[in-house]
Amino acid sequence: MAALRTAIHRSSARLSSNNSPSQSLSDNYNAKKKEPRTLSRQFLPRWFLVVLFISLAAVSHVGKRRQLIWEEMIKNYLEPPPIEIKLTDKGKFGGNLAKTESGKYATSVAVGSNTPPASPIHLDDPNLLKDHLGVPLHIVFSTDCSSYQHWQSYLLFYSALRSKQPGTVTRIASGCSEEDAAYVHRWFDDQILPMSSRFRIHLTPHFSSVKDKVEGHEKKDYKYFNKPFGLRHWIEESTTMGLHDENGKVEVKFPDSVIILIDPDMIILRPITTDFSSDRDVIIPKRVLKDRKMRLEEGIPFGQAYGMGAHWKDFDMDSIIGKGVPSPARDLPRIEGLLRYAVGPPYLANAKDMHSIAVKWTDFVPGVYEQYPKLLAEMYGYCIAAAHLKLPHQKVESLMISDPTLSCEGWSFVESMPDGKVCSYAMELDHAKYPLPNVMHYCQTYNLGDNDHSFNKRQVSHTFFSCEGEDDGKGGMLSGPLPMMESGAEVRYNSTRRMRKGVYKTVELSRGEVKRVVFSLCAIRGTMNEALMYYREHHCKK
Predict the structure, then answer these.
(1) Residue 18, SS3 per DSSP
(2) What is the CA radius of gyration of the chain?
(3) Under a CB-based contact definition with an 8 Å cutoff, are residues 192 and 159 in contact?
(4) Which of 135, 144, 253, 432 has the fewest CB atoms inside 10 Å of its own CB, making it the most exposed?
(5) Are strands 266-268 and 302-305 parallel, antiparallel or unpaired?
(6) Is 49 helix (H, G, I), strand (E, B) or coil?
(7) 201 CB contacts (<8 Å, ≥6 apart)?
(8) Tens of pLDDT along 185-209?
């Protein structure tokens, strides 16, 4: 079996292209750039699948013992065995507490392994380029070339493979040095391409420099400029999308495609598609239910609801759009800005719409940053670009979970899960049992008790995905007890929250908040450990 999987992965296509040169944000964007290397379209030969099925059929003749071991491994992955619970009296505010039948508060902690017994075999379907409505999808995410974003990118690609996310998935890496670019290409060829022929890499110039308007020199760096400029570069320069002249008008080559822009620190829990018609699978904010759109089409983009308000309405539009330049964004009522434009990743739009947004986004975002040199500047720039183009978005709450304290995300799915199964469902990720959000954005710090259970992405080793390391979270498995909830028991957890820079506060969480944090911790840990097992199975010597 292992030899067969190795042969399948080695048969995957390899990349061949040139690196894009590095240049600053102030350079003429429309200047001719070298074509970045992209994935040639080669699919898994059908005869390999025939050999695969013949080999599986032959297993029963090789030996009954091997077959029983294989069946047990799959069973344990699909139906994880119950996790032991150890109860110990710790007092009223001892951290992870549950009330027992005797009335005492006791810790309720998972003991033992917190990973599936084995990494499942993910057979990729190279023809999975469209969703169930027949719409071609392109998922893209923007990064730099740092090792910090290599492990996040690997995890995102793996989650796309595991969830059977339709469409191509492309990492847009910006600002790589010549040495970094060579490494990123090797990384992609060796670690990502064998997963799926639908996965791509696209390199762009350096876009994140902020220049002094008067003197013209670079004064700082705003890394999130890479998102709008990298997106536009991919749309206009890649062979996956690209532009062409249609009757004297330059347009995207594949206008019927849909582009989905997500962040690198997201994992896909269930596939993102263009179909939002199911009441079971989709949560729409109450204030926009009346005009709810059921599916994405040209002129009808979608986006995740964010609690960012319409603060951009207070910006000086002359310095952003241009003095005296007419724009619908100027006169848009604030309430419309809140209901139709306060969205963030995942962004979903028809390819033509997304290109139009990307062009205006890159035009406007430097001016936004001049007035608002903080986090969210690029998101406000997106809002202004969409409003300028009269492209109101259908807000969706269930596309993402991230911050357990917010009500505008898909947390009601999590809260509907039985108390005692929240962690196991977070690791199993079976949408058929309980509806799931589409992605988890793990940009928060998730903790319960006195950091008894905690996760922060900045504490993860940049070499997490490696063949070395013990089970200590530094180059090895994320280990330690998992948080649990007993059905029907009263649960009290403390959590440390960052109020502002350098100021933290310990608060007691509600039962619903506990379930949110438990799900988050188990989902990210389960996904990372499963991805590491997959990595070691395919890249490490036995």
Answers:
(1) strand
(2) 24
(3) no
(4) 432
(5) unpaired
(6) helix
(7) 15, 37, 38, 39, 170, 171, 173, 184, 185, 188, 192
(8) 999 999 999 999 999 999 999 887 7
Give the Cα separation of 426 and 218 in Å (integer): 45
User: Is the Cβ–Cβ distance between 411 and 339 less than 8 Å?
Assistant: no
Tell me, what amino acid is at 392? P
* Pairing mode, strands 97-99 and 491-492: antiparallel
Q: Pairing between strand 109-111 and 84-86?
A: antiparallel
DSSP string computed for 187-224:
HIIIIITTT-TTEEEEEE----EEE-TTT-SEEEE-GG
Which residue, chain included where needed, has tokens 């032991």?
84
Q: Are 187 and 150 in contact (CB under 8 A)?
A: yes
Q: What percent of the chain has pLDDT over 70?
A: 68
Q: Is the pLDDT of residue 376 over 50?
A: yes
Distance of CA 141 to the CA centre of its chain: 8
Q: What angle do CA 237, 242, 246 make, to 5 degrees?
A: 130
Residues 6+ apart with CB under 8 A from 454: 445, 446, 447, 448, 521
pLDDT digits (tens, 9 = 90+) for 209-262: 766 555 565 666 777 889 999 999 999 999 999 999 878 888 999 999 999 999
- pLDDT of 334 > 60? The answer is yes
Q: Residue 144 has what DSSP assignment?
A: -
Q: How far apart are CA 349 and CA 230, in angstroms?
A: 16
**Cβ contact 410:437 at 8 Å:** yes
Estimate the crossing angle of helix 377-388 against helix 226-237, to 10 degrees: 50
Range from 77-91, 212-226, 302-316, 465-479 that averages highest in pLDDT: 302-316
Angle at 367 between CA 363 and CA 369, to 5 degrees: 115
Q: Which amino acid is at 117?
A: P
Exposure letters 510-523 (e unless 16+ CB within 10 A, then b): eeebbbbbbbbbbb
What is the C-alpha to C-alpha distance for residues 252 and 232, in angstroms, rounded to an integer?
11
Question: Which tokens in the block code for residue 337?
Answer: 């800005």
530 token code pair: 């499963």
User: What Å distances lie between residue 348 and 173, 258, 321, CA to CA?
Assistant: 20, 7, 24
Residue 478 main-chain phi, psi, to 5 deg = -80, 115
Contact 396, 305 (CB under 8 A): yes
SS (H, E, C) 383-449: HHHHHHCCCCCEEECCCEECCCCCCCCCHHHHHCCCHHHHHHHHHHCCCCCCCCCCEEECCCCEEEC
Task: Kindly report the pTM of this predicted structure.
Answer: 0.76
> Phi and psi at residue 500, in whole multiples of 5°?
-160, 180
Of the chain, the end-to-end C-alpha distance in Å amounts to 14
Among residues 227, 378, 379, which one has the least CA distance to residue 308? 379
